[in-house]
Design goal:
The chain has a single domain, classed as Methane Monooxygenase Hydroxylase, Chain G, domain 1 (Up-down Bundle). Helix content is 83%, strand content 0%. The longest helix has 39 residues, at 180-218. The radius of gyration is 20 Å and the shape is elongated. By secondary structure, the chain is mostly helical.
Length: 229
């Protein structure tokens, strides 16, 4: 009985660590987006500097998970939760890396005059942020239906990523002057395109998290399958 209580407490600790990592990752994405929109170098640098804490949490989650697998030999739902926790923490760490990438692009862009506003970029930030929010909420609520619904948002994220790309290509073709200004304009556009691809990746990884949640709750591997709940 005492061993079971210790095991349950360890699972609860693992869940709380994962939720803490999710919160930190969501904040990193929000701050990176805000820094990009406001051309805020200080906030962008804070995102970069804070990434090590998220990396440390991933290592801690992996260590606890491996220890539980080795010593407790969990079964059924408990086993799925531990495996799912390791997968989710890996995807959260990769999302945080994308936030860092956006912040690094922002630091570059802050050194040059701003591009004209790109409404599609704001739309992309909104939809990928919603995807991440829904992934985290589905984990908290253990809701496979909500988890799988994230996949339906991926086409929207892809659409806005393509609109950003088309907008910036048109800008480079039509509005780029000769000489040094041409080089600067091209570099600004390329850095913004890279930032948009990072945000698209946030959406993809959020979809992965939703699939992991569905696996934990139902035991079904829904990756690459059209399954509804």
């Amino acid at each position: 009985m005492e061993d079971r209580k210790h095991f349950v407490n360890s699972l609860e600790k693992l869940k709380m660590m994962l939720l803490n990592m999710a919160t930190m990752t969501r904040r990193a994405v929000e701050n990176a987006n805000q820094a990009f929109q406001d051309r805020n170098e200080g906030l962008a640098q804070a995102v970069i500097d804070g990434d090590h804490a998220i990396n440390d949490l991933e290592v801690q989650i992996d260590n606890i998970s491996l220890k539980l697998l080795a010593l407790e030999q969990p079964m059924a739902r408990d086993l799925r939760f531990i495996i799912g926790a390791m997968r989710i923490s890996n995807d959260l760490e990769r999302i945080a890396d994308q936030a860092v990438n956006v912040a690094e692009r922002t630091l570059f862009l802050c050194q040059h005059p701003p591009l004209d506003p790109i409404p599609a970029m704001e739309q992309l930030m909104e939809v990928t942020g919603d995807m991440l929010d829904r992934a985290i909420k589905s984990f908290v609520e253990e809701d496979p239906k909500q988890a799988i619904s994230i996949r339906e948002m991926d086409d929207t994220a892809d659409h806005w990523t393509m609109v950003v790309l088309q907008t910036l290509i048109e800008n480079m073709v039509q509005n780029t002057p000769e000489g040094e200004k041409r080089l600067v304009n091209t570099r600004r556009s390329v850095q913004t395109i890279i930032a948009s691809r990072c945000l698209e990746r946030v959406g993809d990884l959020s979809t992965n998290i939703g699939e992991h949640v569905a696996f934990i709750v139902t035991g079904m591997n829904v990756k690459h399958q059209k399954i509804a709940f």
